[in-house]
Design goal:
The complex is a heterodimer. By secondary structure, chain A is an all-beta fold. Chain A is 0% helix and 53% strand. The chains are: A mainly beta, B mainly beta.
């Protein structure tokens, strides 16, 4: 049973507009959340993270929002650029289970159209 | 350049073959990981090593055998695999076993096809 779900396998956005990628989780023990980006033929690279004590974390064009009551997080990319086209993975961990145990979603493929 | 390299990048093997996947990290990290990504499934953690000692084996079949001879190298020895073992195998490393704020650096992966 998937504990981290990314229900949209793909998303297309016009260049300059906002991209919103969503992630839901079921395990209430998760206390740390990460987003990774993956280009073809490369490994995932870390993008941004958020601790469960926060509801927002911002890094340049990337902002992650966490809604603990809804067990939902989202990644906002503003403005979207063609180089943002990649697969985005949401991941979660809990200190209790060993925070190295990352549970990943299946990923969302983002295409930014010039 | 992530500093984590994996060889080979692609591998085709028969069910009776024995092969090994190699991972090397040049980041001075102390923890290394093997992940598996099957088609249409999330990345799944297979093995975790910290300071060359295995700290996690997530119910992985014995036909997969990891080896960590030093903190820079990690191997995954494969024998008598099944076609359903065909997947992308990713290696990762982190400075220490992941703690809040730590991140894992991934290699490019080995695409394995078992015939």
């Amino acid at each position: 049973d998937q504990q981290v779900k990314q229900n949209s396998p793909s998303l297309s956005v016009q260049e300059g507009r906002i991209s919103i990628l969503n992630c839901d989780y079921t395990n209430s023990m998760f206390d740390y959340f990460l987003w990774y980006k993956k280009y073809p033929a490369e490994g995932p690279t870390f993008l941004i993270s958020i601790s469960s004590i926060k509801d927002k974390n911002e890094d340049g064009r990337f902002t992650v929002f966490l809604n603990k009551s809804a067990k939902h997080l989202s990644l906002h990319i503003v403005p979207s650029q063609p180089g943002d086209s990649a697969v985005y993975f949401c991941a979660a961990s809990s200190a209790g289970a060993g925070s190295y145990q990352l549970t990943f979603g299946k990923g969302t493929k983002l295409s930014v159209i010039p | 350049e992530t500093g984590v390299t994996q060889t080979p990048r692609h591998l085709v093997m028969g069910m009776t073959n024995k092969k090994s996947l190699k991972c090397e990290q040049h980041l001075g990290h102390n923890a290394m990981y093997w992940y598996k990504q099957s088609a249409k499934k999330p990345l799944e953690l297979m093995f975790v090593y910290s300071l060359e000692e295995r700290v996690e084996n997530n119910s992985v079949p014995s036909r997969f055998s990891p080896e960590c001879p030093n903190s820079s190298h990690l191997f995954l020895h494969l024998h008598t695999l099944q076609p359903e073992d065909s997947a992308l195998y990713l290696c990762a490393s982190s400075l220490e076993l992941l703690s809040k704020g730590e991140t894992q650096y991934f290699g490019p992966g080995t695409r394995l096809l078992v015939l």
